[in-house]
Amino acid sequence: MEIYNILISDEIGRNGITAKYVRSEIAKAKEAGAKEIRVVINSPGGEVYEGYDIFNSLQSVKASGIKVTTHVTGQCASIATLVACAGDEIISSPVSQWMFHEPSGGVQG
Fold this sequence. Notes:
By secondary structure, this protein is α/β, with parallel strands linked by helices. About 30% of the residues lie in helices and about 30% in strands. α1 packs parallel to α2. The protein is globular and about 50 Å long.
């Protein structure tokens, strides 16, 4: 298999796309002998630390010699922008929309 696709088409975090899911897809790609992983993104963002974990997982794939290409097909906001930047190559649709900001958090009690 030449190219393996991973879809991130939901919120990033426990109610959407998780790092555990991405790592399992990476394992399937390696098992299939993929030379490239294509990450297709249409996400409003989500949980910062989950996104950091996804970013680091994609970085480790690159270190193993598998090319990572990210394709932004729609919305790429918040932590999804960091995930998109994990690619060796970043491709953005002419109708995609990006939104960058510094991470934020909150506590309630």
